[in-house]
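Before going further, learn to read the protein records used in this course. The integers have meaning only within a learned vocabulary of local backbone shapes. The record below shows the convention in full.
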Amino acid sequence: MTVITDNKKRVTLPTKPGSRFDLQAVGKDKFILIRLEPVKFRQSRVTFRKKGGYTVGKLDHPINNAALREALAEFP
């Protein structure tokens, strides 16, 4: 398959919206695209309760503290 860049240096591939690819540079002028499996998200269920005058939400699964620290690391 041959693709052509547009005037903004973009290449359009015949894919579905949201498709994920791994891009590997091989040498100076060669690239390899590998299609990745879609990420399957699971919706969380949250229940809200009043505790000590505050509204508190409780998740149906435990929070990963390392992932939380990583997500909050970009905030000052």
Q: What stands out?
A: The CA atoms of residues 65 and 71 lie 10 Å apart. Residues 42-76 form one domain.
